[in-house]
Request: fold
Amino acid sequence: MRRLVWLGWAMMAQLALAQTAGVVVSQIYGGGGNAGATLKNDFVELFNRTDAVVAVDGWKFEYASATGEFTQSTALVGTIPANGYYLIGQAAGAGGTLDLPTPDVTGAIAMSATAAKVRIVRADGSQVELVNYSGLSNTTASLRRDAGCGEGFANGAPSPRNSASPVKVCGAAPPPARELTISQIQGAGLKSPYEGEYVTTR
Reply:
């Protein structure tokens, strides 16, 4: 009998998405240009989970320290593609070797590399989303699960995307599964070499 095995959390994230929608914060990074950082700039990435283009003219990105008030902001302009991303570039440090992909909008906020809070606000003052981040470093970002489709965040290497990046359709059918033996799935290390993929086994 053939069994389908999913080695990851994306399936649960996609199911959770069925009850959510709209624009979300998908990535936060405040270590740009700091010691040991690869990227030169801080950034926040937004993701449009809907199948329609979203205009963000009049919206604002707002930033505050972990315990402070929202006193710094960047005005947003343009649109977020359907199922696409939007990159908000922020302040550059003295270090780093790589530029961000071309930001969709650029601010000058020096974000904390470790912990703070950010929010997106519409032109009418209503809040799109507020995210508190913590436990980061000069080399890690806060990443929304399943490339923006999931709920919750995990810390990992920053990977900024802008409106020209490939789109991500939430809830799309999984790719065809590969047929592997149990020993191949287990691998020789502590983690399966096929983690995050759909596979089948007999």
The first helix runs from residue 10 to 17. The radius of gyration is 18 Å.
